[in-house]
Amino acid sequence: MARVDIPVVAFTRGGTVMADPITGDVANGHALANDGRVGLIVKNTSSTTQYNVTLRLSRTVDGQSVSPRVEPVPFGKSKAFGPFAPGDYGTSLLVDVDNVALTLIAVRVS
């Protein structure tokens, strides 16, 4: 199956209504349109367990894949990540979660 797109909210001076976060899809993962000005907000809705979000790098070094970034999100907390350089992460940032307790929303600064 295809990766699930993460909604992107563009900041404006007049204010923008935030989209509802999406529930992490463990089986299919997620994709985020990346222009180098996006950030990702990951919330762990669990009240007892820390879970991880994985940010996949698209670049290679000497023809070898670069290990993905695995970042813990403490239970009951949110973490913000970014920006993501397109040369490292690609124009479609691939994001994986290890539990449906993680919710995702992206923001873009214009």
Map the helices and strands:
Blueprint: E1 4-5, E2 8-11, E3 22-23, E4 30-33, E5 38-44, E6 51-56, E7 60-61, E8 64-65, E9 69-73, E10 78-81, H1 86-89, E11 92-97, E12 102-109
Parallel strand pairs: 1-4, 2-12
Antiparallel strand pairs: 3-12, 4-11, 5-10, 5-12, 6-9, 6-11, 7-8
Helices and strands, in order, run as EEEEEEEEEEHEE
How many structural units, i.e. domains? 1
CATH architectural group: Sandwich
Number of strands: 12
Report the radius of gyration as a whole number of Å.
14 Å
In the sheet with the most strands, the strands line up as: 1-4-11-6-9
The poorly predicted ranges are none
Give the N-terminus to C-terminus distance in angstroms.
Answer: 31 Å
CATH topology: Hypothetical Protein Tm1070, Chain: A
> What structural category do the secondary elements indicate?
mainly beta
Strand content: over 45%
Tell me, what is the CATH class? Answer: Mainly Beta
Shape: globular
Number of helices: 1
The residue fraction in helices comes out at under 10%
Task: Please give a structural write-up.
- The protein is mainly β and 110 residues long.
- The protein has one domain (4-109): Hypothetical Protein Tm1070, Chain: A, CATH 2.60.290.
- It is built from one helix and twelve strands, in the order E-E-E-E-E-E-E-E-E-E-H-E-E.
- The chain has one helix spanning 86-89, and strands spanning 4-5, 8-11, 22-23, 30-33, 38-44, 51-56, 60-61, 64-65, 69-73, 78-81, 92-97, 102-109.
- The strands form three sheets. The chain has a five-stranded mixed beta sheet, with no helix packed on it.
- The longest helix is centred in the C-terminal third of the chain and has 4 residues, at 86-89.
